[in-house]
Amino acid sequence: MSLKRPMSLFRPRRGPDPSILAEHRALIEEIDRRKLLRGAVSLGALSMLTGCNIAEQPQVQSVLRAVSSFNDRVQEAIFDPNKLAPTYSVDQVVKPPRFNAYYEIENVRPVDVSGWKLELAGLVADKRPWTLDQIYALPEQEEIIKHICVEGWDYIGQWSGPNLRQFLTRVGADLSAKYVAFHGNDDYLEVIDMPSALHPQTILATKYAGEPIADPFGYPLRLRTAVKLGFKNPKWIRAIEVTNVYQEGFWEKQGFNWFSGL
Ligand SMILES: Nc1nc2c(c(=O)[nH]1)N[C@H]1C(S)=C(S)[C@@H](COP(=O)(O)O)O[C@H]1N2
Ligand SMILES: [Mo]
């Protein structure tokens, strides 16, 4: 199966050697995209600030990584757990949703729900797995929110399912832990910070526009949060783990920011 490369949003104009830019493209794109340091950071400015030779690639890499993790810390620090993201009206909902994954839609392997159970791991008091019927029996919350993908597109979707804070509270998760990790059936791992997991607009979605989510979009269970970019919304969840261990998923390994909040 061939993995996709993130689409380039960045076009080198003039200045540093384009091959260096190409090498560090994902990190530069991320820095550029977040706008946080826009104007303040160019490779030239970085080399002046750090005194490191722009031709020495490992140093460029480590400076960019340092900027990226600084960016994560700033985003984490300014995140307001009570601020609500915009919501939309039913007539704006796109049907069906727009597909994306780290592979093409033809390669989606639908989850066989006959033996499926949601596993719980890590800092959770009650680790009994959940059947789909038990999850469907929980109170539902609906969110009409925008999904924004780092590949440069977005759509408004209508998701419903149990509120994640209520679910984590119910299973006795340690809400003071740092992270909630989601393991997808397709070996996709994504981890979000606890404040975002506990945000009122973060749900375990089972439905789209009132119907069970279709296979390509994460049936039977996915995360939908209004406070994270698309890739931080794992589909086909098979296990939820509460942990203090920092882990990076597919897109972070491509150079996108770990926090990736909206
Ligand atoms: N399990 C899993 N979840 C995933 C992905 C994936 O490849 N596998 N891709 C992510 C990305 S990059 C995006 S933009 C959204 C796409 O969700 P959609 O197909 O419902 O629009 O799913 C995210 N969740
Ligand atoms: Mo995405």
TrEMBL record:
It holds the Pfam family Oxidored_molyb. Signal peptide: none annotated. InterPro entries: OxRdtase_Mopterin-bd_dom, OxRdtase_Mopterin-bd_sf. Residues 110-251 form the Oxidoreductase molybdopterin-binding domain. SUPFAM superfamilies: Oxidoreductase molybdopterin-binding domain. PANTHER family: BLL0505 PROTEIN, PROTEIN-METHIONINE-SULFOXIDE REDUCTASE. This is Molybdopterin-dependent oxidoreductase. It comes from Ancylobacter mangrovi.
